[in-house]
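Reviewer has doubts. Consider these tokens.
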Amino acid sequence: MNASISKKTLNEIIRCQRNEITESVLYARLASIEKREDNKKVLNQIAHEEKAHYEILKKYSNREVAPNRRRIWLYYLLARVLGLTFAVKLMESGEGQATLNYNRFTDMPELQQLAHDEELHEQKLINLINEERLAYMGSVVLGLNDALVEFTGALAGFTLALSDPKLIALTGSITGIAAALSMASSEYLSTKSEEGDDKHPVKAAIYTGVAYLITVVALVSPFIWIANSIIALCVMLTMAIIIIALFNFYYAVARDESFRKRFVEMAVLSFGVAAISFVIGYLLKLFTGINE
């Protein structure tokens, strides 16, 4: 059937064919690790449909195409580490390009139908996932946001007030651990008092506390390993930006929200508080007459 197809079109069909068989294998593997039966059923259904798409494309290319094993391994690993929702939605964000590719085949109605099927896949997947980690995402956001905003400010203030990196790390660690326990306790009480909330209070408290503690450890570590407090502060602020970027990328993909809006908002809050605290630390040091 490919005798009348140009080389460029044939290459495009083969590229789409590889994408379909890759996602078919990938969805089947994701279904194999999914514990919820409703999620497993939809994943297997989409894997079957992707294989059917592959067979349709094969009629035009007359070729067997191997799946992209590296891509399968990558998204399978992402699903295991970061959750099925994140892996599937990140993968689906690439389906838009596949749809565009199919829309180029204006003289092949059968391939045009595949574009419509790809859109249906995305609609199914939006309503697919019901993961525990997403149910408790609000608790993670609470712990992470509070730690970044409060702790970048505290460490910036300590840097000018105390100067000694080891003392800053010690003071920051004590403050951070106490704040993490306080936030976890508050989240426990808050979740417990909310009627009709499916979240378990203890789990919500753990998610909040752990998110806070991980952030504290990451932000305090430069003051442990770097002798110059100002350099340590700069490294800490860089790590804060990296944490903000990584978390908001995850959140934006999993929740279908704008990465840029959330990233800018969180970065401005964290660095704004850090700048104010830095100035306050300097003024307190100046007015109290405490020198290095």
